[in-house]
Amino acid sequence: MGVTTALLDLVLPPRCAGCDAPGVLVCPRCTAELRGEPARRTPAPSPPGLPECWSATVYAGAARRAILAYKEHGRTALAHPLAGALALTAGTAVGGHPVVLVPVPSSRPALRRRGHDPVGRLAVLAAGYLRAAGWPATAVQALAQRRRVADQAGLNALQRAENLSSALRLTPGASGSLAALLGGGRVVVLVDDVVTTGATLAEAARVLRAAGAEPRLAVTVAATRRRERPRDDHAR
Ligand SMILES: [Zn+2]
Asked: 105, 123, 228, 236: which sits with the fewest CB atoms below 10 Å from its CB?
């Protein structure tokens, strides 16, 4: 399905992923909504070990529709505006330090179903945007899923934390590449598309911390408002 949708994007006039207006991938109004206002939006309460969380915007409206279209409906071209929002947010949050962006990995079944690694791609593109702006930035796929994780949607915060315990591991070679980059004074920044309870990011931070690569921040495109948890549309 992903490939078909990506092909349709090439052969048909595009429609805005945020508002369905014809002729553009994301219209200027929805682009402004997507970039939102980079700000600290750490979930409260937050799980132990969760780094400070920054996001471009809240998970609603055009941002929510664009993230879902990118992640679940194969509109891979949306990686560019979404990564742009991430890069702006990372730039605002980190304030001048060279960065290593570490994406939160998708589960293997999700990778197969989607046919692409949506967050990994965002991290690579966002690092490219930062470098193009003269900012030392690298994306390192340092984390992988250890085992199958049940769909997180519909679980409460405690269930999510339990479900995720030791779900992530370092990828082979990650320790060496992180050590080399951190030796150069870089700051580790976790990257995900959406933060909801923060359980996934806290788990990712725990694994990196154990490897001596403490993440200073987490940056996401959007943050779920506490009272508007999506029940079934934010699957990892
Ligand atoms: Zn629009």
From this structure: 228
First to last CA, the chain: 18
In the block, residue with structure tokens 């690694």? 117
DSSP summary character for residue 19: T
Half-sphere exposure of 189 (CA within 13 A, CB side): 32
Q: Are 53 and 195 in contact (CB under 8 A)?
A: yes
Q: Please report whether residue 159 resides in a domain.
A: yes
CA of 26 from ligand 1 middle (Å) equals: 5
Measured in Å, residue 13 CA sits from the centre of ligand 1 at 14
- Asked if residue 177 is part of any domain, the answer here is yes
- What is the Å distance from ligand 1's center to 32 Cα? 9
Is 121 a domain residue? yes
Residue-wise pLDDT tens digits, 39-76: 999 999 999 999 999 999 999 999 999 999 999 888 99
Residue 138 structural domain:
2-228
**213 alpha carbon – ligand 1 mean position (Å):** 39
